[in-house]
Each structure stands twice: as structure tokens, then as C-alpha cells.
């Protein structure tokens, strides 16, 4: 068990955070109730005694989901609270809460915050929840199968499809990725596109699925496909995907699938650059360097070349070279003046 001797009631959210949790209905009881639960669980863990589910239930007013909600609140507040949160999830599981069981299994599998791992037990829990129709457990179990038992790929596919039908769009992303790369299956781009498409339908709008459809539509020979590519990239960009933001910027810059607009290109390159998307930083630096669509600004050009250079790699080395040249040019200009 992780060290809990130094933990105290301070792992609870402070009053301001607590009020926000109440406002967003993440918690719904008085702070005194949660303090009593934490004090009891902490005491039992620190004295190496069993936590009694009946006692926890009595304190929490028989509100089983609230045990899980308290565990969530603790983890949001501090990673140090992981041992207590894990025990709360275990208590919720013992009381019959599937979400608590899922959270407990997830912590068991990953060992979050220094808590002990037990992959075998976690897998059993994910399997049990999957049979009950828990979509995120189905996702996790499918992922475990693909890593540990690739010969059972058909089971993984079935689990991903069940999760997808329950509204977990990432399941369709995983299926599309498998068929695109030939991971555990024969490579099949038609099936890949089919699954990526499913991840954008029926109320789902998975940004990575949109991005991959944009990639598939990026054929320079077909203007109609280029327009579709731009639309997919645009949806993914609006959801914050930096590679999509870069691609929208690139298409505005080159006029592919949309009318050329350097100003808009710079806007989207900036969005991606702020998320450390390296090639967007280089493009943005060059736009500032040449005043393409935006006002020429040597300081900003240097800044973005520097940011890209700091990320290293081939692109980083090229950015560093451009930065050195820019600084040398500025130095010579100052010397002449």
C-alpha cells in the first residue's frame, strides 16, 4: 500500500473548490459529511485496519454514488490523495457501484499516484463490467487484449464495437487505426474509413476521427475531396486538435479546399503553435519573417523559431539554423546603423 501516514484531512478540496463542486453537482452533501468519511478512512488506513463498508455507507447516508464522487473530488484536488481515493472507489465497488468499480480497476491497472498495481485483478474487474455493458470497461479490456493477447483480436474488435455503439467514439478511432495500420488485422483502408466515419456520426464528433477522414480526403487531384478534407480538419481544429489546426492553417495558406487567406492561416498556425506543434511554429515564424498575411515582426519570428528549435529533431535543427541566420542579419543591420 502507498504511504498514507503523512496524509491529513487537508486532502479535501478547499472551501472555494468545494463550492464549485457543489455548483456543478459533482458533490451534493455538506462538507462535514465528507470530512467524517475522510477522517474514518484515513484512520483505518493509517492504523492498518479494514475499512468497513457499512460504516462508510452510514456516514454518507446510504448514497453509494456519492462515495465515488468523493473519490473523484479528491483526485481532482491532489494526486497525493490517490490512496484514499482508491479506497473510496473500492468501497463504492463493494457497495455495488459500477462506476466506482471502474475507477478502482483503472487505478489498480495503472498504479496512479503511487498506489499498488494488480493488472490481473484489474483485468478481471474490467471483464466483469464489460459483461454488464460498461462501455469504458469494454474499451479498456479491448486495449488490454490487444497488448497482451493479440491472438484474441476478434474479441477486442467486438468489445470496441460494443463501446462504440454505446457512444464511446474513441472506440471507433481505435478500430479505424487498427485497420489503417494493419495492427492485429489485415490492412484495409476502406474499413478504416468506415470506422472513422462512424466516430463522427450519431451525435458523436470525435476530433481524431474527423482528422483521419481529412487525411483520407486530402487528394490533390480531386477538388471535391479537398473541400471535404478542409471541413473535417476544421471540425477537429475547433475541438482543439493541434495537428488539425495546423492543417487548416496550411490549407488557408495554400488555398486547398478553401479560398486562400494568409491571415486565417496565421490564426490557425498560432493555435497549433501554442500547443507546441513544431511545424506550425516554423510556418508562423516564417509568416512573421516575411510579413505574409500578418505584419512583419522580427521579434515574433525569432520567438517562434526559438520555440521550434527547443523541441529538437530535424525540424528543430532547421528552425535553429533559420534563427541563427535571422539573428546574424539583425546584428549586421544594427552594426551598419
From TrEMBL:
TM stretches of this protein: none
SUPFAM superfamilies linked: HCP-like
Gene Ontology biological process terms, A to Z: ERAD pathway
InterPro entries: Sel1-like (IPR006597), Sel1_AlgK (IPR050767), TPR-like_helical_dom_sf (IPR011990)
GO CC annotation, single: endoplasmic reticulum membrane
Family per similarity comment: Belongs to the sel-1 family.
PANTHER family assigned to the protein according to its UniProt record, in alphabetical order: PTHR11102:SF161, SEL-1-LIKE PROTEIN
Protein name, as recorded: HCP-like protein
Organism, as annotated: Hesseltinella vesiculosa
Amino acid at each position: 500500500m502507498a504511504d498514507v501516514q503523512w496524509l491529513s484531512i487537508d486532502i479535501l478540496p478547499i472551501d472555494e473548490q468545494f463550492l464549485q463542486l457543489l455548483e456543478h453537482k459533482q458533490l451534493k452533501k455538506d462538507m462535514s459529511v465528507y470530512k467524517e468519511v475522510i477522517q474514518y478512512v484515513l484512520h483505518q488506513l493509517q492504523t492498518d485496519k479494514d475499512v468497513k463498508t457499512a460504516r462508510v455507507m452510514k456516514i454518507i447516508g446510504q448514497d453509494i454514488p456519492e462515495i465515488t464522487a468523493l473519490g473523484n473530488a479528491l483526485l481532482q484536488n491532489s494526486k497525493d490523495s490517490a490512496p484514499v481515493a482508491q479506497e473510496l472507489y473500492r468501497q463504492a465497488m463493494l457497495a455495488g457501484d459500477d462506476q466506482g468499480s471502474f475507477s478502482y480497476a483503472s487505478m489498480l491497472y495503472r498504479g496512479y499516484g503511487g498506489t499498488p498495481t494488480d493488472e490481473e485483478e484489474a483485468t478481471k474487474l474490467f471483464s466483469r463490467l464489460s459483461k454488464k455493458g460498461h462501455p469504458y470497461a469494454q474499451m479498456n479490456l479491448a486495449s488490454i487484449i490487444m497488448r497482451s493477447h493479440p491472438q484474441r483480436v476478434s474479441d477486442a474488435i467486438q468489445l470496441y464495437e460494443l463501446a462504440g455503439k454505446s457512444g464511446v467514439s474513441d472506440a471507433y478511432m481505435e478500430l479505424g487505426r487498427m485497420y489503417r495500420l494493419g495492427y492485429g488485422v489485415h490492412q484495409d483502408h476502406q474499413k478504416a474509413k468506415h470506422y472513422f466515419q462512424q466516430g463522427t456520426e450519431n451525435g458523436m464528433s470525435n476530433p481524431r476521427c474527423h482528422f483521419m477522414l481529412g487525411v483520407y480526403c486530402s487528394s490533390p487531384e480531386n477538388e471535391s475531396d479537398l473541400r471535404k478534407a478542409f471541413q473535417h480538419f476544421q471540425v477537429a481544429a475547433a475541438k482543439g486538435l493541434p495537428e488539425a489546426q495546423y492543417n487548416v492553417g496550411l490549407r488557408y495558406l495554400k488555398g486547398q479546399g478553401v479560398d486562400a487567406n494568409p491571415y486565417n492561416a496565421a490564426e490557425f498556425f498560432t493555435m497549433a503553435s501554442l500547443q507546441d506543434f513544431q511545424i506550425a511554429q516554423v510556418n508562423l515564424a516564417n509568416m512573421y519573417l516575411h510579413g505574409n498575411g500578418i505584419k512583419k515582426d522580427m521579434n515574433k519570428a525569432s520567438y517562434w523559431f526559438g520555440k521550434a528549435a527547443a523541441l529538437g529533431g530535424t525540424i528543430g535543427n532547421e528552425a535553429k539554423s533559420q534563427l541563427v541566420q535571422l539573428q546574424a542579419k539583425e546584428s549586421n543591420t544594427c552594426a551598419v546603423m
